[in-house]
Amino acid sequence: MPDHCHWLFCLNGKYSLEQTVRMFKGKCSRLVEVNLWQKGFHDRALRSDEDLLPIARYVIANPLRAGLVERVGEYPYWDAAWL
């Protein structure tokens, strides 16, 4: 997506969600030497395995809903391990 991103990942218990996001955003910004990110982020913790597939499908179909592609498979970053 040109103006935002969605991530689905499992935390391993070593770092909190906030720490994980902060480290990722910091590493990306250091690599390109530009602050790429707005402050903060929105999160949604999945509480059950049943929530995973519908949320993964929502994320994968986001470029389609945004009109960037006509089919999900046309978007180069559509793949997900959960599908």
Automatic annotation (TrEMBL):
NCBIfam families the record matches: REP_Tyr_transpos (NF047646)
PANTHER family linked to this entry: REP-ASSOCIATED TYROSINE TRANSPOSASE
Protein name per its UniProtKB record: Transposase IS200-like domain-containing protein
Organism per entry: Alcanivorax jadensis T9
